[in-house]
Amino acid sequence: MQNINFPLPLNAEITRRKKEKLIGAIGTMKLLKQGVWLYFILLIFEGALRKWFLPALSSPLLIVRDPIALGIIWLAWKRGLLVLNPNIIAIWIVTAISILFSMIFGHKSAAVAFFGARVFLFHFPLIYAIGRIFDRDDVIQLGKITLWIAVPMVVLIATQFYSPQSAWVNRGVGGSEEGAGFSGALGYFRPPGTFSFTNGNGMFFGFVGAYVLYFWLNPGKVNKLLLVTATLAVLASISLSISRTLFFELLVSLGFAMIAICFKPKYIGRMLIAVLGMVIAMALLSQTEFFQTATEAFLHRFETANEIEGGLEGVLGDRYMGGMLGAIAGVPVKIPLVGFGIGMGTNVGAMLLTGDVVFLISEEEWGRLIGEMGAPLGISIIFIRLKLCWQLTMACFSRLRMGDLLPWMLLSFCLLCIPQGQWGQPTALGFGTLIAGLVIASLRVPRTKKQNFSIQTKS
Fold it and tell me: What is the DSSP secondary structure assignment for residue 337, as one 8-state letter?
């Protein structure tokens, strides 16, 4: 007897389709969140793979996060989570024009142009994708995991600090026995941690510092013992890293915390407890010989470098502003109107073009952008990044006035990564992309908690 398939009633068919669509959406969102977590994990441990575990693959691992970024963008676009906005459209147009100019008037290398363009084609829109994929709970969870990572990380950099550059723990990219440490002070080198270069170590602990201050002002969000331990790790990292940049990053985050207290005086008590705890921790650490040695090296580098760069004003003016005045002043004389070619100012671009790692254009980010793209396009990219910072600042400040400190504290680190972050370097690009996405995501309260949050902010 022939089987006859009776059609479902219209309402039942609609319900079935809705369920299938819902299940598909939930599965896609889960996959997207896993993609963001993978991007984060690879950002932290990419250098470890390139130095210690897969040194033969060090070159392809340099862009190991690019396929992840591209996959997240494609899937988020397919599911309607990534919507083109004026910033993305503008940066894609500028990048496309720059690629064209590079191939016609510039270096004419497709590989170099791709390496430079991927920053804006993949990673910049990923900022907005992360902001739609993650929500506030995800951002807090990532912060907790970061605190856990900070503890063994500081043990690692302490080991690197006191070990010779020939030691396995100090191996360079590709397993190089010359060492991955960078010039420090008093015969000690700046340790890179799990990262390929020392800037990753400084950015990581700056990232951790913003979370640490947030959790001190909201102590119920994380285990107290973990918070205290992570705080000790951040304090110890200042001296062990021999990094003035990290020191300034933490000062900026502390300044943001002080501004938050001005709007919510109820946090004064919590901040005093945090500061008192840090003072006690510093006093205890200073009694140990290993910390005293690291502190002497850090202070020596701080003093000598400040003398060379003209003190605090010279350091902040040149480092944070990225040498923009110098870049613009050199445009009429040194840089063609269409630039030398996108990607040429990166280390990878220089290696592909000359066979050596040198700064062909500028070590500073704004000078590199203008040199690669020319003044009109380079300044356009700078303007888009500054515009993004302004938009995030206004949104975070609005939430601060409502009593929400999470976006504001993350913004303290974000504003050091987006305006003049050296995105030509993969680690700096990764931290810039991640933190900007997390700031946007922290503004998104999970749907089930929106009502409770509204009640809390009004009370």
Answer: T
Q: What is the DSSP letter of 165?
A: T
Closest CA to 215 of 271, 258, 266: 271
Residue among 173, 270, 183, 265 at smallest CA distance from 227: 270
- Whole-angstrom Cα distance, residue 333 to residue 239? 42
Distance separating alpha carbons of residues 62 and 196, to the nearest angstrom:
9
What is d(CA 199, CA 374) in angstroms, rounded to the nearest whole number?
A: 27
Residue partners of 161: CB distance under 8 A and separation at least 6: 188, 189, 191, 240, 294
User: Are 212 and 227 within 8 A, CB to CB?
Assistant: yes
What does the alpha-carbon distance between residue 94 and residue 50 come to, in Å, rounded to a whole number?
Answer: 32
- Report which DSSP code applies to 57: G
Q: How many CB atoms lie within 10 A of CB 347?
A: 18
Q: Which residues contact 201 (CB under 8 A, 6 or more apart)?
A: 153, 157, 190, 191, 192, 193, 195, 237, 241, 243, 246
**Nearest of 57, 61, 74, 65 to residue 37 by alpha carbon:** 65
Q: What is the pLDDT of residues 155-204, one digit of tens each?
A: 999 999 988 888 999 898 888 888 776 676 667 888 999 999 889 999 99
pTM, 2 dp? 0.90
Q: Would you say 246 and 237 are in contact if contact means Cβ atoms under 8 Å apart?
A: yes
DSSP codes joined into one string, 260-271:
HHHH-GGGHHHH
Distance of CA 189 to the CA centre of its chain: 23
Whether the CA torsion 352, 357, 362, 364 is positive or negative: it is positive
User: d(Cα 328, Cα 317) in Å, to the nearest integer?
Assistant: 15
Q: Using CA atoms, how far apart are residues 124 and 122, in angstroms rounded to an integer? A: 6
In the chain, % helix, strand, coil (3-state, to 5) comes to 75, 0, 20
**At 185, which helix (H) or strand (E)?**
strand 182-185
- Cα–Cα distance measured from residue 290 to residue 284, given in angstroms and rounded to the nearest whole number: 12
* DSSP element (H, E) containing 189: strand 188-190
- 110-140 pLDDT tens trace: 999 999 999 999 999 999 999 999 999 999 9
How far is 72 from 78, CA to CA, in rounded Å?
10
Distance CA 294, CA 302 (A): 12
Closest CA to 172 of 185, 160, 184, 162: 160
- Span 211-233, mean pLDDT? 92
